[in-house]
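Technical note accompanying the year-one report. For the benefit of new consortium partners, we illustrate the data format agreed upon in the data management plan: each record pairs a sequence with a structure-token string. No post-processing was applied to the example shown here.
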Amino acid sequence: MSDTPAPALKEMFNEARYRKIARDVAAVFPGFDQKHFLKLTLPGLEPLALLARLRRATEALHATLPVEYPKALAVLREVAPLWGEGFTALVLPDFVGLYGREDFDCSLDALKFFTRFGSSEFAIREFLRLDLRRTLRTMTKWSRDDNEHVRRLASEGCRPRLPWSFKLRDLIADPSPVAPILENLRADPSLYVRKSVANHLNDITKDHPAWVLDRLAGWDLENKHTAWIAKHALRTLIKKGDRRALGVIGAGARAQIHLEAFAVAPRRIILGDELTISCQLTSTGRKSQRLVIDYTIHYVKQSGAASAKVFKWKELTLAPGETLTLTKRQRIRDFTTRKHHVGQHAVDVMVNGERFAEAMFDLRLAR
């Protein structure tokens, strides 16, 4: 493995990228002023983060393309195939979201086209915020499109809690307007689309779990594509031990098991060390049973309180009298989203949402 660090994400928009954008636009629009575009994009680039660099390209295009919005769009439609499916292509829907709000129909048609190159999921939210019902009518049509990128946009664009974007508070309050879209995509043959539908439903479970569970109850879970969506849509509820969600994947009954030898080793670790979690469980039931096994680490916070994080461990079917030994290794290290603090950390093992055992380890930051 190379010790050379990977380039920062913001380098996706570096000087070379801006120069390529300028050349490509000039190739389809001979009147394009490349020098002016580069004058607008290159100065003071280093401190800018990724999204700020992307937006700089968008604003520079607006300053150098035809003033008339439809004519500018026509140029961008021609340049899109030159960029293919890459991060650069996100400039295209960003242009629409920023400058096309007053030309509703033309802009939505452009987003449908551009999403095949770089997803329009962020830009479409500007139109959802502007006119929710009108935009959702168009997105419902997209959910029946032949192109998987367009169908995915129908779901991903109206997720109530889409990462890296603002929340759609009207849909957080009431998800029912997106129901026709989710219904159309409930057995989609594309994994790309199914992942979006599952993530969309998982978003909704954070505010309306019963709404999602009621909807899934009416779906044909014998269909493998639908079953896949349901399982991944309920992952947050399953981690919480929600009995109804566990029942959807066949693990709603209380586990009939004897769990022993639950251990966390070593009992004292330094930040960066690896932790080994193990246990042995034996079925005490008379029939085979579906088991969902998770473990929870209760991370010590700076205040001294604990914050629980649930991790997936194993899903299996255990025969009557069968014994199974499980082992899991996890490195305890800092992330941008989690900083560790010294102290005793509890670890629980959960089977079908029920806590069966607990152990402890002591964390130190340095030797």
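Partners are asked to follow this layout when depositing records. The radius of gyration is 25 Å.
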